[in-house]
Amino acid sequence: MDFLMSYTLRPSGGDSGYHTGIRKGELLPIRLDQVNWRAKQITLYHGTTKSNEGRVLPICGDMIPWTELAPDDLKQNYPDCQWLFHRAGRHIKDFRKTWENACEAAGVDASLFHDLRRCAVRNMELAGVARSVAMKITGHKTESVYLRYMIASNRDIRAAGEKLACYIAGAGAEPLQQPLQDAEPEAAKKHAKH
Questions:
Q1: Per the CATH hierarchy, to which homologous superfamily does domain 2-148 belong?
Q2: What is the DSSP letter of 84?
Q3: Tell me: the pLDDT tens digits for 91-148?
Q4: Which of 24, 36, 53, 111 is deepest in the core (most CB within 10 A)?
Q5: Among candidate residues 53, 46, 2, 44, the one with its CA nearest the CA of residue 24
Q6: For the chain, how are helix, strand and coil distributed in percent, rounded to 5?
Q7: Domain residue spans in the chain?
Q8: What is the C-alpha separation between 156 and 190, in angstroms, rounded?
Q9: In degrees rounded to 5, what are phi and psi of residue 31?
Q10: Cβ(120)–Cβ(21) under 8 Å?
Q11: What pTM did the predictor assign?
């Protein structure tokens, strides 16, 4: 994955997608004046996102090394470049072919840049980031759409089975109960009315 990220865009737009879930259409127009290098934040202005609402993205994880190098690289090599994501100082308008080549070179099935949104959502959930904060970062307006990106993997299902087995083996499980109508006829009748 590291090769794929660094191969596609310099500085690494792949890392940005993986960590923040930014959409490709929101990523490419980012200008240098939207980056607060000291605060480690990228501001997406109102009207530049899918929802037309502005938001702030953290610069974190694998994004940090390239963002620390980017200002000096731009000043030295591309002083007239105003774009955060560029090829030799020129604005990148599309990177589909580069992305496909990177996938092939990395030996992974051709995936979409948009798939990085799923990675970001899943990673934020697993890291314990508050869902409201994660949704602000990814730009999801509704929890139902956000949750469609939180895909349970086979590893998650195996881990759930192991946790359940440990819980039951530790006598934490509830004993088998009779159905509600057999155990408490009056309570069952009241429950059925509501």
A1: Intergrase catalytic core (1.10.443.10)
A2: S
A3: 888 888 888 887 888 787 767 888 888 889 999 998 999 999 999 999 999 999 998 8
A4: 24
A5: 44
A6: 55, 10, 40
A7: 2-148, 154-193
A8: 39
A9: -100, 160
A10: yes
A11: 0.72
